[in-house]
Amino acid sequence: MNSPFELGSVLIKGGRVVDPANGLDATADLLVLDGVIQAVGRLEAPAGCAVLSADGLVVAPGLVDMHVHLREPGYEYKEDIASGSRAAVAGGVTSMAAMPNTQPVTDDPSVVGYILERARAAGLARVFPVGAITKGLQGQFLTEMGLLLQAGCVAFSDDGRPVTDSGVMRRAMEYARMFGALIIQHAEEPSLTANGCMNEGLISSRLGLPGIPVESESVVVDRDLRLAALTASRYHVAHVSTGDAVQAVAQARNRQLAVSCEVTPHHFSLTDEAVLGYDTDAKMSPPLRNERDRLAVLEGLARGIITVIATDHAPHDEENKRLEFCHAANGVVGLETLLPVSLELVRDGVMTLADCLAAMSCNPARLLGIPHGTLGVGQAADIVLFDLEESWTVDARQLRSKSKNTCFHGRRVKGRVKRTLLAGKVVYDGV
Ligand SMILES: [Zn+2]
Predict the structure, then answer these.
(1) Which residues are catalytic?
(2) Gap from CA of 422 to ligand 1 centroid (Å)
């Protein structure tokens, strides 16, 4: 016999409920019946309903991470959908958008179906496939966006690679607009990146490493914003890293264009100084920038220009990371450190707790057009309970992800996920 708890019915009592989608930040109880949020307020448990105490905890919408590499199909030795889902829920993430640079690439409905099936089998978190913009991520021929959307895709991107050809990008935007779909660009000009492997500046000179200039990102964003204006399409810059790109997005938003951008925790919390020891866990694309760019990104968050925090969770095995700096793979894992590192923004006075959580819940959910990231009555009860004050030290070996390539190993952080619920069922218990 299943307990009511296992059936997704529970009263979450006495927590600080922060639901940015509904402008709520107050001590309240939350009643979940059959996996759906029934009521928020001062409540009594119906007969037979389980009660979960949230005393001293924040009760927030399950986090929505719109930029995740789950590596399945094709690279299951780095991560698979099950291990990525375990990492997600340990980090409070209940919905994630899975980037299409798998093998095969998510450029065909059959791959979308496979990912959804594997996510269902894992049963821990919701996975929303992002379809490729071009076949095989080759930057030439557009995918069948309509069919991919029908199959379950929520946006389009060639992430990992930029769409460099302006004509292809224009047609992709026009095509996506027919469906109201979001185009997500990995903004990078390959001829400016060339063989660069870190930010171009004082530190790259000192280390004798080839650099990647800020313009590698900003020239692509500038071009794309013009194309977004031309096509009146929905455009989103992935993992923005430079003040110039943030400023360009700000101007476009002032002109009422439907453009947005996201930042990763590593780009707003670290600089290229992290590369000083040639640590390949500080190697990613785009690279960690200098303090001036980091401060510009913080200002972008504070001013609501950057409306999304996303991890760019990019698992890599040791074999691909334990290499000479320039030869190591790009990317870091991030699902399990997303929340505590982002909460530093709140403690540092950059954002309110509600705005910070919005950037990881309702804001990305709206961009993807998915009905999550909210604690509204009638919504699926995807919920995270966390302790705002608990301090802990990030330990790469403790991560649930198959890959341990975190750039936050040894960092003292504050804020710890205690429980994660998906449709009212506990999928992570860290108590
Ligand atoms: Zn990318």
Answers:
(1) 312
(2) 28
Distance between CA 233 and CA 172 in Å, rounded? 10
Long-range contacts of 297-301 (CB under 8 A, 24+ apart): 297/240, 297/241, 297/243, 297/246, 297/263, 297/267, 297/268, 298/268, 298/345, 298/350, 299/246, 300/240, 300/243, 300/246, 300/249, 300/250, 300/261, 300/263, 301/263, 301/268, 301/345, 301/350, 301/351, 301/359
Cα of 186 from ligand 1 centre, angstroms: 5
Model confidence pLDDT, tens digit, residues 267-310 = 999 999 999 999 999 999 999 999 999 999 999 999 999 999 99
Largest CA distance in the chain: 69
Return the ∠ at Cα 229 (arms to 226 and 230), rounded to 5°.
Answer: 85
CA 410 – ligand 1 centroid, Å? 25
CA of 99 to the centre of ligand 1 (A): 9
Ligand 1 centroid to Cα of residue 286, in Å, is 7
387 alpha carbon – ligand 1 mean position (Å): 31
Residues with Cβ within 5 Å of ion ligand 1?
A: 159, 186, 238
Say if CB 100 and CB 75 are below 8 A apart: no
For residue 159, the CA-to-ligand 1 centroid distance in Å is 5
The whole-number pLDDT of residue 212 equals 98
Q: What is the 27 CA–ligand 1 centroid distance (Å)?
A: 39
Q: What pLDDT, in 10s, does the model give residues 258-269? A: 999 999 999 999
Is pLDDT of 2 > 50?
Answer: no
CATH T-level assignment (fold) for domain 62-368? TIM Barrel (3.20.20)
In this prediction, residue 6 carries a pLDDT of 63
**How do the domains of the chain map onto residue ranges?**
62-368
Residue whose C-alpha is closest to residue 231's, from 168, 150, 299, 288: 168
Read off the pTM.
0.97
Sign of CA dihedral 222, 238, 265, 200: negative
